[in-house]
Amino acid sequence: MTKQPYAEPWRIKMVEPVKILTREERLAKIQEAEYNLFNLAAEDVYIDLLTDSGTGAMSDRQWSAMMLGDESYAGSRSFLRMKKTITELLGFPHVVPTHQGRAAENVLFSATIKAGDIVPGNAHFDTTKGHIEFRQAIPVDCTVDEAADPNLELPFKGNIDTRKLEACIAKYGVDKIPMVIHTVTCNTGGGQPVSMENIKAVSAVCHKHSIPLIFDSARFAENAYFIKTREAGYEDKSIKEIVKEMFSYADGMTMSAKKDAIINIGGFIALKSLETYRKCATFNIMFEGYLTYGGMSGRDMDALAAGLMESTEYDYLHARISQVKYLGDKITELGIPIVKPAGGHAVYVDAKAFFPQIPQIQYPAQVLGVALYVEAGVRGVEIGTVLADRDPVTREERPPKMELLRLAIPRRVYTNNHMDVVVWGLQQIWAKRESYKGLKIKYEAPIMRHFTSTFEQL
């Protein structure tokens, strides 16, 4: 007897129509946007894989929870429900709400990072690196070397190399290191997960030196799924049990709830230290809002609490990550190079291997992103030299080891038929890949330039 086919554990209750432009119309639109995909109007995009942040489809339970929203300025029931969920699920007693993940970084780093500090981690993402460098501190990448090889099939390529971490601590000294940031999963490295064994090892190093360990937790539930399905000893544990153990080794966390809490806006800091909480509280009131809303409405806090519980269910995660794998497998079948294995939230196309004739300082991942929009109306995002930004001291380009086009899949939004369109678009470009040329920057901001840069074709 054949095995029963797998289908998503939900039914579609509402749909949103999308517009499909012609190729000629899309070409005109990207020229108007000066070849920056962020500058496109969303209505001119057919399949939007720019980000999985805030773009997911909320459930009926989340929409119902929003009707309970208490919009009181101080001490709202919505905050107390959200805090109770975070404390019970993740184990942290102190919670600081923020309007999104980068706001959580801004508040926490304002309280803890000063000029000259060193912040080790596993391939800090754009806002994390930007907030560190804005404070004239230095992010140090301690990711395992294997993460830089897109063709290497390993289960946990997001791990921190503890030897690199120890060397960093020995070089700069404990007093210069306010925290270690462990990103779970590691976005810049291809959406790659971190093993429980590595979390324990990094935690041991941090606590030996009395350095706080902070998780960048935007996709913590996806990381827990990979631990369950790839790490020995966890196959019989529930996602919630794995999550509780993961966070037991950390001293705190930042969270963009727009990812694994499946809401459109929101985030938080959660901490074990009352002293650090009090420092963050001052900056939160200055930057975000009062301590029981922090830039969020009551209804969003209720939706966040419901989303955290839904995202830590195995069936949901299996459907989510299976779709990412489906896209990755289809692209690989065409011989198109991607980061292997496919990540938890996105497929990362290896633009350096896709366009070997285009040097990194001519932004091959940006070229590929523009081409995919023109061919198929699909919007991805460059994770390469543009995003890596210039060295804050020398102002020289600093091309990263990998030059990637990220195709981030929103949660519960697209079907596999949409994924087939993405594959078709890449296939069209692959067939004529030798004909593409690079881009050069016309305008760039001094920090986090990729959001607003404009380009022209070479």
Account of the 3D structure:
The structure is a single chain. By secondary structure, the protein is α/β, with parallel strands linked by helices. It folds into two domains: 23-52 and 314-457, Aspartate Aminotransferase, domain 1 (Alpha-Beta Complex), CATH 3.90.1150; 60-311, Aspartate Aminotransferase, domain 2 (3-Layer(aba) Sandwich). Helices cover 40% and strands 12% of the residues. The chain has 16 helices and 14 strands. It has helices at residues 23-32, 60-66, 77-90, 101-112, 126-134, 162-172, 196-208, 220-230, 239-248, 274-287, 298-311, 314-333, 351-354, 364-376, 385-388, 416-431; strands at 47-48, 94-98, 118-121, 138-141, 180-183, 213-216, 252-256, 267-271, 346-350, 378-379, 381-383, 404-408, 439-443, 454-457. The strands form five sheets. The chain has a five-stranded mixed beta sheet, with helices on both faces. Strands 9-12-11 form a three-stranded antiparallel beta sheet. Helix 5 links the parallel strand 3 (118-121) and strand 4. Helix 8 crosses helix 9 (239-248) and helix 14 crosses helix 16. The longest helix is centred in the C-terminal third of the chain and has 20 residues, at 314-333. It is globular. The N and C termini lie far apart (58 Å). The mean pLDDT is 97.
